[in-house]
Amino acid sequence: MVSSIDGKGKQMKKLLIGFMLMSVAGSASLAQTNFYTNVTNLWYQGGENKTNVLTIANARLDSNTNDFAGLFLKAHYHAEFAEPDMVSNAFLRVVEVGNTIATTNFVELWQDRSKDILFFLEMLTAHPLTPQEIQKIKAEKYKAFLPHKPLPNADLIEALLKDGFFD
Fold first, then answer.
1. Full-prediction pTM beyond 0.85?
2. CB burial class (10 A; 0-12, 13-18, 19+) of residue 134?
3. Could you tell me where the DSSP H helices lie in the chain?
4. How far is the CA of 133 from the CAs of 84, 90, 91, 139, 162, in angstroms?
5. Assign residue 146 a region: left if phi > 0, alpha if psi is -120 to 50, beta otherwise?
6. Measured between alpha carbons, how far is 72 from 61 in angstroms, rounded to an integer?
7. Long-range pairs for 116-121 at CB < 8 Å and ≥24 separation?
8. Running DSSP on this structure, what letter comes out for residue 127?
9. Do 91 and 76 meet the contact criterion of CB atoms below 8 Å apart?
10. 153: alpha, beta or left? (left if phi > 0; alpha if psi -120 to 50)
């Protein structure tokens, strides 16, 4: 009798482990599928939700320092929150990694966007901000928390999603 119960317990344990693995795998896939929607909605809601976008970016970068989505989100966070010391390096990394991605939908958008980013970086180098300008920008940092502002260039993340980049 004990061996019969013990056998059923082992079967139940295997079933439970299998179910848990399917749930984890399914939710990870769902999280990647909804990545674009999640980050764009958080950004649009404003406030602390934008800080959550930075947390998502940092988590992605912790697992892969060349993760385009993480670099992209982090660069836009630095720009939005008036962190001029961080913006140039952040966007330079976005361009470096973006240039290595060869998926169809992304490349179609990236060619022009990378040129725009490089032009922006050239302007920052050619016309550096004065300490007074930096203080003025930082004084208006509160505007970054305002809601109803879309994530800039979010269509790049959407293109990667369409290309199966997050699968």
1. no
2. middle
3. 2-33, 35-45, 48-63, 68-80, 84-98, 104-126, 131-139, 154-162
4. 10, 20, 20, 10, 40
5. beta
6. 10
7. 117/91, 120/91, 121/88, 121/91, 121/92, 121/95
8. S
9. no
10. left
pLDDT higher for 26 or 33?
A: 33
Most trustworthy range by pLDDT among 22-36, 130-144, 146-160: 146-160
- Domain positions in the chain are 34-162
91 neighbors 120 (Cβ within 8 angstroms):
yes
Can you read off the two tokens belonging to residue 44?
A: 């649009």
- CA neighbor of 69 nearest in space, from 160, 167, 163: 160
Q: Which two tokens stand for residue 8?
A: 């059923």
Amino acid identity, position 52:
N
